[in-house]
């Protein structure tokens, strides 16, 4: 079966990043998966020129230079210093997307693709680094509370079609219980991460908050043995489970005092119902027709003293708990 263009170009990037020197076009033709399928040198030359052009259009810094031991033969490589990205500031949503992509890259399927490409290069006599392209999962992602390792295991298990066994608790006030799950997917709802799958112990579909799963999670059974039924909407299942867990949340109006001229993000989603002076500061009372969801909690807490929850009391307490934790003066549970 012909190698897909994206896979061929990925193999080329791996080869040009891994080599210590310059690779000749002839060696690329013989050793990089996807090019050996070209029936003639002319077909390879056309394909290689197209790939080089597309990689350069993507900003990948291809270099040409003399091959070691030759004054006339030219080769190719990627300038690692120019290829490396500078520090990037990501939003919470962007960081979550990167985390998923990184974890998927580390799954057995993608790891096999990378290792296979490097093995073929070594077999062809290309001098490559032992560990040329490091990948690591970012830490401290929002909604995980230190459960990044658990997320990585879950994503790998979903990709491999393998069951998982872990200890989980539905709230900090209850003890952990062991569960064996056939994982169908991991999604975010309201800023939190959730696992959806078939619970073998309960013989039913269940949703679990990832941050409440213990880190001693393990895979069980053979890869490829489990998977979601056709047409399963994992995100809809998770959203319904989260909504059912707080049945009154969506019906409780939120009342927030905001300082005059402040908290514009809350003003955009709320309705001004009264003026009020609080602690000597003029402001307004907003009514927001939504329940105490995680995203709203974060938004209110982010305004500090410029936004104060008046009702409901449970949301007020959650905001105060978050502010105390951020200040290092309260319980961080």
TrEMBL record:
Domain of life, per the record?
Bacteria
Species of origin reads: Mycolicibacterium fallax
A Pfam family of the record is WYL
List the taxonomic lineage. Bacteria, Bacillati, Actinomycetota, Actinomycetes, Mycobacteriales
- Descriptive protein name: Transcriptional regulator
Ranges for the WCX domain?
Answer: 251-327
Q: Which InterPro entries match?
A: CBASS_pafABC_assoc_protein (IPR051534), WCX_dom (IPR057727), WYL_dom (IPR026881)
Q: Which PANTHER family does this UniProt record tie to the protein?
A: PROTEIN PAFB (PTHR34580:SF3), PTHR34580
**Which residues does the UniProt record annotate as the domain WYL?**
149-215
